[in-house]
């Protein structure tokens, strides 16, 4: 956010009479996020073109980034020699659709500005051995606490964020919480779950952990994310210190 879109305006007198007091209005280019400067054009002869009088600027909002585009349309108004208003809705010369909703033979396509998005997510998974009897070793029934930190590292708002982990399933593990309904860019959420030791886990799973990126949708409904298996750099028989992160997912 904070970046801007610049708008230029080309006003052409397509009629047979001179127009005076020509102004432009644009509902997007108003405070606090937009501005439109210049004008009015005092007089414009038939066939004359003005490309320098009016200019506009708009500061991009998060909702625009999530939508992936900014759409707007301006209205030009001038006065003919009889004192009557002459108006035209703006057309985007880069839009080949050439829609003509008012049927006057003059295309009136809105101006669409595409905004390249950057959707990304980060998941950190940390573990702590809970030495319930305090002997410094792992026994059946003792647990491991896992904390998850989900961060939106992209530029779009993410929705419906979930986490899956093949280790944290019944009967010895559980993963609770979620989905995260919405996570804005830069926002962080944390959660903690417990896993009970089982005899074959002491022998077969003590040296590794699975770390899964969550499945989530970006602002355009696209699914991103993936999974990685990472070494667990702790020896089961070494004494451990209690620690952990707490929060809600």
TrEMBL record:
Keyword vocabulary terms for this entry: Plasmid
Keyword Glycoprotein: no
Cited InterPro entries: DUF11_rpt, DUF7507, Ig-like_fold
Domain (DUF7507) ranges: 2-88, 120-188
Biased amino acid composition, Basic and acidic residues: 233-249
Keyword set includes Zinc-finger: no
Region annotation (Disordered) ranges: 74-121, 215-249
Residue ranges with Acidic residues bias: 82-120
The protein, known as: DUF7507 domain-containing protein
Organism the protein comes from: Nonlabens agnitus
């Amino acid at each position: 956010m904070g970046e801007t879109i610049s708008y230029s305006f080309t006003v052409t007198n397509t009629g047979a009479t001179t127009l005076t007091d020509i102004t432009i209005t644009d509902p997007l280019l108003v405070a606090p996020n937009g501005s439109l400067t210049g004008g009015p054009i005092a007089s414009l002869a038939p066939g004359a073109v003005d490309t320098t009088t009016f200019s506009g600027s708009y500061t991009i909002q998060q909702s625009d980034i999530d939508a992936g585009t900014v759409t707007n349309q301006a209205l030009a108004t001038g006065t003919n020699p009889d004192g009557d208003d002459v108006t035209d809705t703006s057309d985007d010369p880069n839009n080949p659709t050439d829609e003509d909703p008012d049927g006057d033979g003059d295309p009136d396509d809105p101006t669409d500005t595409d905004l390249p998005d950057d959707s990304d997510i980060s998941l950190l998974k940390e573990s702590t051995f809970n030495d319930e009897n305090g002997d410094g070793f792992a026994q059946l029934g003792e647990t491991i606490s896992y904390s998850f930190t989900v961060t939106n590292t992209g530029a779009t708002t993410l929705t419906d964020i979930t986490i899956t982990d093949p280790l944290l399933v019944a009967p010895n593990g559980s993963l609770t919480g979620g989905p995260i309904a919405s996570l804005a860019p830069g926002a962080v959420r944390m959660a903690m779950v417990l896993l009970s030791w089982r005899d074959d886990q002491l022998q077969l799973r003590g040296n590794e952990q699975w770390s899964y990126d969550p499945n989530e949708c970006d602002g355009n409904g696209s699914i991103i994310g993936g999974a990685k298996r990472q070494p667990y750099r702790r020896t089961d028989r070494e004494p451990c210190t209690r620690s952990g992160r707490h929060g809600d997912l």
